Design the sequence.
């Protein structure tokens, strides 16, 4: 049973019809996760991976399959995923619980290997590109698809061997993990003010 409309003002993309399919799932993601500062190698590797799988698809598809993804990809522990073999690729391609895209599956394994082979902590690396806080956007039209910081992040990640991390995906990752605060100005979700991490 979906939760009723609570009357709170939310970002336009998170507004659905109460009682509609996935209304609560999407609303909870907006209210409790999206734009909240996220740190740690495993949580950020998960978000990076899911953003790559989302490319070209609705985020709602990813949310519906999230627990299946976690099970299929060993909880998104990069050290474990980095050891995946061709047999794992075949297993994942047969898993109806996830998005079965060979290029994205192979990229996730390659990205885990890049994390495992790297000398820098993934969390520190990604957060090093977080820009200075700016005012929240007034409308969705004011939200950019890329920024100089996301372009720089994508360039550095590619240099380190990461795949499926273009500037648009990098910016979506920055939004989802609170590196930028793109909740609309009228949205009820409080600003995190996580400037200590910048």
Sequence:
């Amino acid at each position: 049973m979906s939760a009723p409309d609570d009357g709170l003002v939310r970002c336009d993309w998170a507004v659905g019809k109460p009682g509609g399919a996935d209304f609560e799932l999407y609303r909870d993601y907006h209210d409790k996760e999206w734009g909240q500062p996220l740190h740690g190698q495993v949580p950020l590797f998960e978000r990076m991976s899911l953003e790559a799988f989302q490319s070209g698809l609705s985020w709602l598809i990813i949310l519906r399959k999230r627990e299946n993804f976690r099970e299929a990809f060993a909880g998104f522990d990069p050290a474990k995923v980095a050891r995946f073999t061709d047999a794992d690729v075949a297993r994942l391609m047969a898993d109806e619980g996830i998005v079965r895209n060979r290029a994205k599956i192979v990229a996730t394994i390659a990205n885990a290997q890049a994390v495992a082979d790297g000398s820098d902590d993934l969390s520190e690396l990604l957060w090093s590109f977080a820009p200075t806080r700016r005012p929240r956007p007034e409308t969705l039209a004011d939200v950019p698809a890329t920024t100089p910081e996301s372009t720089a992040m994508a360039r550095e990640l590619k240099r380190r061997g990461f795949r499926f991390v273009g500037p648009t995906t990098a910016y979506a990752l920055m939004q989802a993990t609170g590196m930028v605060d793109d909740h609309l100005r009228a949205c009820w979700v409080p600003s995190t003010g996580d400037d200590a991490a910048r």
Notes: The chain has a mean pLDDT of 92. The first helix runs from residue 23 to 32.
